[in-house]
Design brief:
- This protein has about 70 residues and is mostly helical.
- It has one domain.
- It is built from two helices and no strands.
- The two termini are about 25 Å apart.
Length: about 70
């Protein structure tokens, strides 16, 4: 069971690494504008702020528990 969890976490990390590459490609192809980018960044910042206010143990940026 632990091996399966580790395998799935590795897949999540791999998928998260592809996000910036996909965003860069969307910028180049014209499918993502600067305002869309700022909305995405604002959403991430808002989520991070809410998590910190709520006092959760996980950071949405890293996906790893804080120590």
């Amino acid at each position: 069971m632990t091996a399966r969890v580790a395998e799935m976490q590795a897949k999540v990390v791999e998928a998260e690494a592809q996000v910036p590459l996909a965003m860069a490609e969307a910028f180049r192809s014209g499918n993502l504008g600067i305002m869309d980018y700022y909305r995405i960044k604002n959403l991430g910042a808002d989520t991070d702020m809410r998590s910190k206010i709520a006092g959760t143990d996980e950071s949405p940026d890293s996906g790893n528990p804080k120590k």
